[in-house]
Amino acid sequence: MPGNSFGNIFKITTWGESHGKALGVIVDGCPAGLKISEKDIQLELDRRRPGQSKYTTQRKEADKVEILSGIFNGTTTGTPISMLIPNADAISKSYENFKDIYRPGHADLSYDEKYGIRDHRGGGRSSNRETVGRVAAGAIAKKILKTMKIKTFGFVSQIGNLKCEKIDANYIEKNPLRIPDKSKLKEMGDLIDSVRKQGDSIGGIIEVRSVGVPAGLGSPVFEKFDARLASAIMGIGGVRGFEIGLGFSVASMKGSQVNDIMVGKSKGKVKFDTNNAGGILGGITNGNDIILRFALKPTSSISQIQKSINSKGKVKNLQVKGRHDPCLCPRAVPIAEAMVNLVLLDCILENKLSTLKKIV
Ligand SMILES: Cc1cc2nc3c(=O)[nH]c(=O)nc-3n(C[C@H](O)[C@H](O)[C@H](O)COP(=O)(O)O)c2cc1C
Fold first, then answer.
1. pLDDT tens, 236-254?
2. Counting atoms of ligand 1 from 1, which one is nearest the CA of 126?
3. Fewer Cβ atoms within 10 A, N terminus or C terminus of the chain?
4. pTM of whole model > 0.70?
5. Which CATH class is domain 5-359?
6. Distance 64 CA to ligand 1 centre (A)
7. 114-161: per-residue pLDDT in tens?
8. What are the boundaries of each domain within the chain?
9. 286 Cβ neighbours under 8 A, 6+ residues apart
């Protein structure tokens, strides 16, 4: 099964399944000399952890990270960093009833079609549990980016048809939905509660912004910065749409409304009057903040009775019990931030090779 590695220089490989013994990640290409501890990694894993509130899956995982290699006396050595996160609360018997039935909206059918074998327990490798490795690796990238004053933050901007109207960055981590608009908390929380009571789920939109990003990241033509972000975000389970800057709304606009006008230079940085491009021109960052958005589908595991088929094609009724996120959005925020941080750092390290001036 290839496709488990991400990045060119700061390269991560995640491993493990939802109901296996443990999951983890190997980070290769991390520069030596970074002071980092398990505490730094744990901070990010705790933001992604299940069971954080009534709006997330009630699976109880401490997600305690253990660093196995690559860090000596609290400092990275330049050798591969290996991190392990045990699975402590997997209840595989919840999945026995549909061992041979393909759950609608899940990867069960497509994994079986491709490999002829699948780990039915909790979705195996297709489970969102896999992303603990990405978040652990992203925590290292985040710490390096902090030394460069680059900061990425995400928030839930929409749940169902309810949209946030204000962005209060200080409020995001203070509420269980990770929304930036306090006035919407009750309404959005009630919506999630009501769909859950109906044995259903609900989708939403997440926005991620990166500030302090230098101009010049990303490479023409197949490694454009936006293409790499799209790959990073679309690789998260449940993502159904991705946009940069004004995104899909440009389809109904005029050039005069969309073009960002350059208005001068300050401290060597070009100033724009707007940021409709989301910080990227020609696949290369322009010094403006990166702004991206993505749509998450409603959770596929719903407790309503649904029809599906088994591996022999026979129609069956199934009810997906077990513990599930009624809305994927709140927990997807730290995962998306991690993926964006991985892209940013990888592109920054690649830039060290972009001109002879930076090599010698
Ligand atoms: C943070 C997060 C949590 C998720 N939790 C669940 C869950 O509890 N139940 C579920 O059915 N899917 C969950 N998913 C989505 C599945 O992983 C995903 O829908 C499935 O693997 C099929 O992949 P696809 O939707 O990309 O086609 C979650 C995704 C994310 C990002």
1. 999 999 999 999 999 999 9
2. 21
3. C
4. yes
5. alpha beta
6. 22
7. 999 999 998 999 999 999 999 999 999 999 999 999 999 999 999 999
8. 5-359
9. 215, 270, 272, 277, 279, 280
